[in-house]
Amino acid sequence: MGSFNTSLGGGFILVGFSDWPQLEIIFFIYILIFYSLTLFGNTTIIALSRMDPQLHTPMYFFLSHLSFLDLCFTTSTVPQLLINLHGLDRTISYGGCVAQLLISLALGSTESLLLVVMAFDRYAAVCRPLHYMTIMHPLLCQALAVVSWVGGLVNSLIQTSLMMTMPLCGHRLNHFFCEMPVFLKLACEDTEGTEAKMFVARVVIVAIPAVLILGSYAQIARAVLRVKSTAGRRKAIGTCGSHLLVVSLFYGSATYTYLQPKDSYSESKGKFVALFYTIITPMFNPLIYTLRNKDVKGALWKVLGRGTATG
């Protein structure tokens, strides 16, 4: 028996997808491609948000933060996964595992809070259009971004600290990175009190933001239904559609992973769900915003020297 604060020798063994050796080379190729697209797409969004004056708005300010979060989150897990799939090394040190757990939790928690902020921004844009720029003042936008980052870090520190007090049986992690539900499965003593505290923290960072976002979009839907012109209604839906799609992707996977009881959590299924929110979602976010947003497409055409998009 051991824990994070007692050495068990070589650290943890990340099983990854070694149970399906015939799929590892296929996973390696596709994940490397997806990771490259994620780096390119999110870096492009950040660059465009800074280079084009038309994108110097609250929406794109928060979008650039989301892209930076996705860059960091996927980079905190995917390189380790690629090494694992290549069969070079399936171990991770205790310090590396704690760091990966802390960083991934902090970034995921920050994204959860940032999506609430983005929902508020869309609410102000649709429901209070005449006062939008007054409400979403640059100082407020910066403060909301800071609160999201600090809140995510605090939540991660709390949960990681609680995790480090739990006794663990073994050092074999049936996952491709150090993730909280996997460690809960390794707990070898009655840890109901600790798990209850951690569950409360997960509810605060996942369930409550999801409810706030649903409330914001309920108000947005009411406002859209009052719009008489078809063009105005389409424009209102267009400003929120991309964000709502991102929210659905994020909270769908987060709910499955973090808001189900430990006993019902499947490590095999959990690995594939984790692939979705560590690789697929960060790759799709830039595509969702680019393909559905004329401003971003217009800025991209400008940078490429092909003129301003008009349609």
Q: Which residues form runs of ≥5 with pLDDT under 50? A: 307-311
Distance between the termini: 63 Å
Instruction: Give the fraction of residues assigned to helices.
Output: over 70%
Roughly what fraction of the amino acids lie in strands?
under 5%
Protein model, in words:
There is one protein chain. The protein has 311 residues and is an all-alpha fold. It has 11 helices and 3 strands, in the order βαααβαααβααααα. Helices cover 74% and strands 2% of the residues. The relative contact order is 0.15. It is globular. It has a 3-stranded mixed beta sheet with strand order 2-1-3. The N and C termini lie far apart (63 Å).
Secondary-structure blueprint of this entry?
Elements: E1 12-14, H1 21-51, H2 58-75, H3 78-86, E2 91-92, H4 94-127, H5 132-135, H6 138-164, E3 172-173, H7 180-186, H8 192-226, H9 230-258, H10 267-292, H11 294-303
Parallel strand pairs: 1-3
Antiparallel strand pairs: 1-2
Helix pairs in contact: 1-2, 1-3, 1-10, 1-11, 2-4, 2-10, 4-6, 4-8, 4-9, 6-8, 8-9, 9-10, 10-11
